[in-house]
């Protein structure tokens, strides 16, 4: 990004933020045997992320993305192709982990056929795991093949307002319109639990036919990269580990997203205080 070189990528962002909140998260991905791969490992280890299923390869470089920010801190991405995470081997994770509580995935890693097979293998191996999809549509890789595969397996869907417009065929939604659209998507794809983020307006959660809305609080935005991933991690940590009710989990998720949007990059180093709020290390 314009202000420096930052570690990122949606699933590993979520893993980072889950770990910051005391949740065991294991990214399954690939890196090159190069400087960026070594730097990625160094930074993730410093953040307490378990890298046992991050595979190194000399055949492909570590993935890179160039991000341009507009005046609101919203990025546009140029994503390199032919990189290590295009060839994820699921077998070490399948052999090394009993069924996890959840498997979290998006559409970007499904741009290549080998990874589509890899995801299918993980889901077959762990049929009891909750299947969490953060849609993360990234042109030109937002293909119908990737979207249909992701949604076809999803039990929980998180997406932003722009991605909702893509699925629902509309351009902008009121808070009431977001609820109606969430219900249409739930009915169309058979997904009873859907979360929609709407930037500085807030977020809504459809949970087994009950709709909740949490308004956003003001934040001095640095960049929005990774804010949605922090949001998802906050939501999952609250729901799956702290067993909070959906309204409280949604409120915590919003505060996590706002916290990260006010900082550079997607992985600030922080801990939660006694009230469960993120506090940055100084």
If you had to describe this structure to a student in words, what would you say it looks like?
There is one protein chain. The chain has 282 residues and is an alpha/beta fold. It is built from nine helices and twelve strands. The strands form four sheets. A six-stranded mixed beta sheet has the order 5-6-7-8-9-10, sandwiched between helices. A two-stranded parallel ribbon has the order 1-2. Strands 3-4 form a two-stranded antiparallel sheet. Strand 9 and strand 10 form a beta hairpin. Helix 1 (10-20) packs across helix 8. The chain is globular, with a radius of gyration of 18 Å. The model has no long low-confidence stretch (mean pLDDT 93).
Question: In brief, what are we looking at here?
Answer:
This protein is α/β, with parallel strands linked by helices and 282 residues long. It has helices spanning 10-20, 35-46, 91-96, 113-125, 144-153, 161-168, 175-189, 227-241, 246-261; strands at 29-32, 54-57, 65-69, 75-79, 102-105, 130-134, 156-160, 193-197, 202-207, 210-215, 270-272, 278-280. The model has no long low-confidence stretch (mean pLDDT 93).
């Amino acid at each position: 990004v314009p202000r420096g070189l930052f570690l990122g990528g949606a699933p590993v962002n979520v893993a980072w933020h889950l770990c910051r909140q005391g949740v065991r998260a294991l990214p399954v991905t690939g890196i090159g045997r190069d400087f960026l791969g070594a730097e990625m490992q160094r930074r993730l280890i410093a953040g307490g992320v378990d890298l046992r299923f991050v595979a190194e390869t000399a055949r492909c470089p570590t993935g890179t993305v160039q991000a341009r920010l507009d005046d609101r801190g919203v990025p546009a991405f140029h994503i390199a192709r032919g990189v290590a995470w295009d060839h994820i081997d699921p077998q070490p994770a399948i052999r090394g982990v009993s069924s996890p509580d959840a498997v979290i995935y998006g559409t970007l890693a499904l741009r290549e056929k080998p990874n589509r097979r890899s995801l299918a293998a993980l889901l077959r191996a762990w049929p009891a795991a909750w299947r969490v999809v953060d849609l993360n549509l990234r042109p030109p890789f937002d293909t119908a093949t990737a979207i249909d595969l992701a949604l076809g397996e999803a039990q929980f869907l998180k997406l932003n307002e722009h991605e909702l417009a893509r699925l629902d065929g509309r351009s902008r939604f009121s808070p009431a319109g977001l609820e109606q659209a969430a219900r249409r998507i739930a009915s169309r794809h058979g997904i009873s639990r859907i979360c929609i983020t709407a930037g500085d307006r807030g977020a809504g959660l459809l949970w087994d036919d009950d709709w909740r809305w949490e308004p956003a609080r003001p934040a001095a935005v640095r960049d929005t990269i990774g804010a949605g991933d922090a949001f998802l991690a906050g939501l999952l940590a609250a729901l799956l580990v702290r067993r909070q009710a959906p309204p409280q989990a949604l409120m915590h998720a919003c505060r996590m997203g706002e916290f990260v949007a006010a900082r550079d990059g997607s992985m600030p180093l922080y801990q939660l205080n006694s009230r469960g709020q993120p506090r940055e290390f100084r």
